[in-house]
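Is this the right way to post structure tokens for a design question? Let me know if I should format differently. Anyway, here goes:
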């Protein structure tokens, strides 16, 4: 075999690294889900680009949290739920499982809401669009192939890049938006409530369960850690930039129309996109982006629930196994998809429900991220533990995010 030049060898190594990417990028694409899109659009419609700096800054603690999942998954070979049960006992594991169930079901409802809303835009009955989406999700995961699930889900998730096109064509009036950004009425309960929603949209508790379990299931080794961390960092920047693009587009196109009342339904977001790119192009861009976001998030959060509950209860959980070898794992996944699709079929599509689901995530965050940090300190070999100045930085950043999320939720709900 001829010797490769250094450039060719480097290119081949890079291609192998990119081909091995999966959980980190996938979980971040899933993070920019239908609920995230609605929360960002509602925030932009009501408050202009005031929240754009917050969204971009949140990429840093988001990376810190998910990088801990990489470290724990590789060094321990165990998922988050399994480590919590082993280190903290069944009581805390049960609490983590409850938080996971609430977070996943609320997220899945928002994903199927997005799918149903897009179907209705094209005259497809809700029962048909939901049934087709549920069948697709079940068929994909039941193949028993981790690589296939990752590749197909990432391909679907890349449709979210359409949101960048929307922000570009919106042609924001930056001087006007900059003037708005300098005005921060922190005493306004709706502003702090939407801030909590954006925090909850960025930090879904099921992301922690998914990424750590996926890394452990794929049996990643210490040689994979650098690649996994780079993947996670790029994913964190990408998901926050995508959310920021939706916010900018909404601030440019919706703020004058929505005013202080905000949006009443998801269809109003699509109508604004019509104005940005023309009716047909706007409808297509919005549909592609929301469908991609909804489907990839539905795959990831359903798998997170299946992995988390299987780990907490001690059942086998692996995408490498066929359904008859891991019936509990696949059964939980199927039940989550079916129940959520059924709920959306029965209930109307409301923006307020989507935003409230993100606020719930903000309230649940301390119960999931707290044990994660403790595990990174005590459950790893000494060489890989979270320590020193970086530990202090992670703790302070995460504490600020948790306090802001909880305070904003409480202030908004009880105002």
């Amino acid at each position: 075999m001829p010797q490769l030049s250094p450039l060719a060898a480097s290119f081949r190594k890079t291609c192998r690294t990119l081909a091995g990417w999966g959980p980190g990028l996938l979980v971040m694409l899933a993070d920019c889900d239908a609920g995230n899109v609605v929360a960002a659009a509602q925030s932009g419609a009501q408050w202009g680009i005031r929240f754009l700096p917050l969204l971009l800054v949140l990429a840093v603690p988001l990376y810190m949290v998910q990088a801990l999942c990489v470290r724990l998954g590789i060094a321990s070979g165990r998922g988050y739920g399994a480590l919590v049960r082993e280190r903290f006992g069944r009581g805390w594991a049960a609490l983590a499982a409850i938080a996971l169930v609430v977070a996943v079901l609320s997220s899945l409802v928002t994903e199927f809401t997005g799918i149903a809303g897009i179907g209705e835009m094209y005259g497809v009955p809700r029962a048909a669009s939901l049934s087709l989406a549920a069948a697709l999700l079940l068929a994909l995961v039941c193949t028993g192939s981790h690589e296939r699930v990752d590749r197909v889900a990432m391909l679907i998730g890349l449709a979210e890049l359409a949101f960048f096109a929307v922000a570009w064509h919106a042609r924001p009036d930056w001087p006007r938006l900059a003037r708005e950004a300098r005005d921060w009425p922190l005493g306004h309960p709706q502003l702090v409530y939407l801030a909590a929603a954006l925090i909850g949209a960025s930090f879904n508790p099921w992301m922690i369960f998914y990424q750590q379990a996926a890394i452990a299931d794929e049996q990643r080794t210490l040689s994979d850690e650098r690649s996994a961390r780079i993947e996670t960092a790029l994913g964190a920047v990408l998901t926050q930039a995508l959310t920021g693009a939706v916010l900018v587009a909404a601030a440019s196109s919706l703020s004058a129309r929505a005013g202080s009342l905000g949006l009443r339904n998801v269809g109003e977001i699509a109508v604004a996109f019509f104005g940005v790119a023309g009716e047909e192009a706007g409808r297509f861009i919005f549909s592609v982006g929301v469908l991609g976001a909804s489907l990839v998030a539905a795959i990831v959060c359903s798998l997170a629930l299946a992995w988390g509950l299987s780990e907490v209860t001690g059942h086998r959980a692996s995408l490498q196994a066929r359904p008859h070898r891991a019936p509990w794992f696949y059964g939980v996944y199927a039940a989550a998809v079916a129940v959520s699709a059924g709920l959306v079929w029965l209930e109307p599509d409301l923006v307020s429900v989507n935003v409230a689901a993100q606020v719930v995530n903000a309230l649940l965050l301390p119960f999931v991220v707290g044990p994660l940090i403790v595990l990174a300190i005590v459950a790893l070999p000494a060489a890989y533990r979270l320590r020193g100045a970086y530990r202090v930085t992670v703790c302070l950043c995460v504490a600020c995010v948790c306090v802001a999320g909880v305070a904003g939720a409480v202030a908004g709900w009880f105002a």
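Format looks fine. Someone answered above. Worth noting: The CA atoms of residues 227 and 374 lie 24 Å apart. DSSP finds 19 helices and no strands in the chain.
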